[in-house]
Write a structure and sequence with these properties.
With about 170 residues, the protein is mainly α. It has three helices and two strands; from the N terminus they run ββααα. Strand 1 and strand 2 form a beta hairpin. Helix 2 runs antiparallel to helix 3.
Length: about 170
């Protein structure tokens, strides 16, 4: 299947003179019956107002109970987001603290190895530890484990293909 580019209407939306005043659409006929379809999509924890009135017909307190449930759900969601942010901060701080402690321990061990007469081994141990800790401090947390972190190459994008694919 070939990629096709949609044609752009030259008539601007701000000048709707190209739209007929009374558009005529032929209804869909199936077995001699006119078929009409309608759809409404509501997204969120609270039903549409018309549905809420229907719930009121079922039980007088149902709309109030639904609203209370939605409010409690919102409070819970905010608490969970806050706890997640606190956990991420604590996790990041703990990683850096462990890296610092590892650096100090390895530098102390490197000094001890150098004092024991093994200068090259001690220098290598200390140097590689410093490089590893600097890498741990500089890289973004979790960037190696997250999929799709690669940004698209801007040089591959064009006017015909804004997604940069292909």
């Amino acid at each position: 299947m070939e990629k096709s580019t949609p044609t752009v209407d030259s008539s601007p939306i701000t000048n709707p003179s190209h739209i007929p005043q009374n558009p005529t659409y032929a209804p869909t006929m199936i077995n001699g019956q006119v078929v009409v379809a309608a759809a409404q999509r509501i997204s969120g924890p609270i039903p549409a107002a018309s549905e809420m009135m229907g719930y009121k017909d079922v039980g007088e307190d149902l709309p109030d109970r639904i609203m209370k449930m939605a409010e409690l759900n919102a409070v819970t969601e905010r608490k969970l987001r806050e706890r997640n942010q606190i956990f991420q901060f604590a996790d990041s701080a703990l990683r850096r603290l462990i890296a610092l402690l590892a650096l100090l321990a390895m530098l102390g061990m490197s000094g001890w190895v150098i004092q024991s007469g093994h200068g090259a081994a001690g220098a290598f141990l200390g140097g590689s530890t410093i490089v590893a800790v600097i890498y741990a401090f500089v890289r973004k947390d979790g960037s190696e484990n997250e999929p799709n972190t690669k940004k698209p190459d801007a040089s591959k994008q064009s006017d015909d293909n804004p997604s940069g694919e292909g």
